[in-house]
Amino acid sequence: MKDPKVLTIQDLSCYGQCSLTVALPIISACGLETAVIPTAVLSTHTAFKAGWTFRDLTDDIAPISDHWVKEALKFDCIYTGYLGSPRQVDLILSIIDRHLANDGAVIVDPAMADGGKLYAGFAEDFPSHMARLCAAADIILPNITEACLMTGTEFRTEYGVDYIESLLRKLAKLGCRNVVLTGVSFEEDKLGVAVYDCAKQETAYYFNPKLPRMSHGTGDVYASSFTGAYMRGASIFDSAAIAADYTVETIRLTMDDDSHWYGVKFEKALPSLAHRIAQLTE
């Protein structure tokens, strides 16, 4: 049996436990060969004080792909995270066309917004470009803010099941096959995900206790562990649950350290994730 190969495309923040510094170790710990294309290099992620460095690597993406074409490199999964521009979206659509193996999976984390607004540096039309990438995806992993921006839906902090179900149907119209909507909460003490099969129009929910801490990088932790579980054979729902449990555990392991504000101690929970993933093939 061939071992799956995963390509992840996102920025590299040299310090701060997010993006590639999270994706590469988590997916690798799931027992998967992992290749990367960094879209930019930052000294730290942007929640640090002003002064962080940024180098755009957009011009390197096409030459990397050209070399890989000569080497006939294909990947069983292409997983994208934070992207910096519409041009990068176009380049990644080309990479999917050139480097995705037959029956391969495209997983898109449209990392661009939270708390009802875009991250700094994005133009107002960027969600429409991210929606184009989501249209090519087998699975998308937006939070509620990102979902609202891509579908032109009013962002709400208080909502019911009907609001979430409507949002899922709108996301399905983008063209993706499955949606895992993160940050869903119908009760004050619970936080979870909604898993939507676009063809069957069926939704399943999974919840964990809501911990009293906001942590940077948890979206990347979630998307990376989801990708690892899914590419090791878990169903979409089980992958969503495994990733949710793992992400909650990383937050729990960080809660007693106020100085560790910039991320979560995901490394400490990797053995438990690897053990759970290993059980998938037993």
Structure description:
The chain is 38% helix and 23% strand. The protein is an alpha/beta fold and 282 residues long. The strands form two sheets. Strands 3-2-1-4-5-8-9-10-11 form a nine-stranded mixed beta sheet, sandwiched between helices. Strands 6-7 form a two-stranded antiparallel ribbon. The longest helix has 17 residues, at 236-252. The mean pLDDT is 95.
Would you count the extended β strands for me? 11
Distance between the termini: 15 Å
- Basic shape: globular
Widest sheet, order of strands: 3-2-1-4-5-8-9-10-11
Provide the β-strand percentage band.
15-25%
Overall average residue pLDDT? 95
Rg, Cα atoms, Å: 18 Å
Quaternary state of this entry equals single chain
Helix content: 25-40%
Low-pLDDT residue spans: none
Give the structural class.
alpha/beta
Q: Determine the number of helices (DSSP H or I, runs of at least 4 residues).
A: 9
- What is the H-and-E element order? EHEEHEHEEEHEHHEEEHHH
Short description:
This protein has 282 residues and is α/β, with parallel strands linked by helices.
What keywords describe this structure?
single chain; alpha/beta; 9-stranded mixed β-sheet; 9 helices
Task: Set out the fold topology.
Layout: E1 5-13, H1 19-29, E2 33-42, E3 54-56, H2 58-70, E4 75-80, H3 86-99, E5 100-108, E6 113-114, E7 117-118, H4 126-135, E8 139-140, H5 144-151, H6 161-172, E9 178-184, E10 190-197, E11 202-209, H7 218-231, H8 236-252, H9 270-278
Parallel strand pairs: 1-2, 1-4, 4-5, 5-8, 8-9
Antiparallel strand pairs: 2-3, 6-7, 9-10, 10-11
Helix pairs in contact: 1-7, 2-3, 3-4, 4-5, 5-6, 7-8
